[in-house]
Design a protein that fits this description.
The protein is an alpha/beta fold. It is built from 7 helices and 10 strands.
Length: 241
């Protein structure tokens, strides 16, 4: 019998309530290993809440989330999951290298790994530059470098390309593709529908509900549309019918 590969993330009937309001109700989905999964939906659709549940920092009212075969938030996942928040988690009063060294110490990762991750995100030449002097896109890459410390098996990136110029967006997606080719699983959230074509799989969210879980090609075939934005609208119309 063929061996079934364990998904990077398995979410089953996730239920999240915040401030007395149901944010996610009974959501189930998977993130396949070694692929780029795009988590797409408009602002307020529940993307960040789902991501927080996956990395184990969101209180949940019900359901189960397993990451790399372990319950989300398990200590064993500490150096196996890299997480980049929407706002860069960096210290402006430190240099690029000092920021990454700090996170290496927190994670218990060898400081020798700092040079490697700075090369990966193309920031080696800025190693001694104060983060406060960097552009927003460069700060995002410092956060990404920190998330890559220790060679995590899963990267969870919450809208990493927001506010970036088109050239830098393309470079980041090329980097994501290279990481996936090495067997790293990526969950990348975005509200920019044209980024969907760069993903292997898609999760489409609206109002805390999963509209679709499919490949880009499968989604277009299912809806008879030419792009993901049109497919998204078609699914909304389908649900309202």
């Amino acid at each position: 019998m063929a061996r079934t590969e364990l998904p990077a993330v398995a979410v089953e009937q996730l239920h999240v309530v915040r401030g007395g309001r149901v944010v996610i109700a009974g959501l189930s989905c998977t993130v396949r290993s070694g692929r780029i999964t795009g988590l797409l939906g408009p602002s307020g659709s529940g993307k960040s809440t789902l991501i927080r549940a996956i990395v184990g920092v969101q209180a949940v009212a019900g359901g189960a989330v397993r990451v790399l075969g372990e319950p989300a938030g398990s200590p064993v996942l500490r150096d196996r999951v890299g997480y980049v928040t929407q706002s860069p988690s960096v210290y402006p009063g430190l240099t690029v290298a000092e920021n990454v060294r700090f996170f290496a110490c927190v994670l218990g990762v060898s400081l020798q790994d700092v040079d490697r991750v700075l090369e990966v995100v193309d920031l080696a030449r800025y190693a001694d530059t104060m983060v406060g002097r960097l552009s927003g896109g460069e700060r995002s890459r410092v956060s990404l470098a920190s998330a890559l410390l220790g060679s995590p098996r899963l990267l969870v990136l919450d809208e990493p390309t927001v506010g970036l110029d088109p050239v830098l967006r393309v470079r980041l997606w090329d980097l994501f593709a290279a990481l996936a080719s090495e067997g790293i699983s990526l969950l990348v959230s975005s509200h920019v529908m044209d980024e969907a074509e760069r993903c292997d799989d898609l999760l489409l969210l609206r109002d805390g509900a999963l509209l679709a879980e499919d490949t880009p090609a499968g989604l277009l075939e299912r809806t008879g549309t030419d792009d993901v934005e049109a497919a998204f609208l078609a699914l909304i119309d389908e649900g309202a019918a």
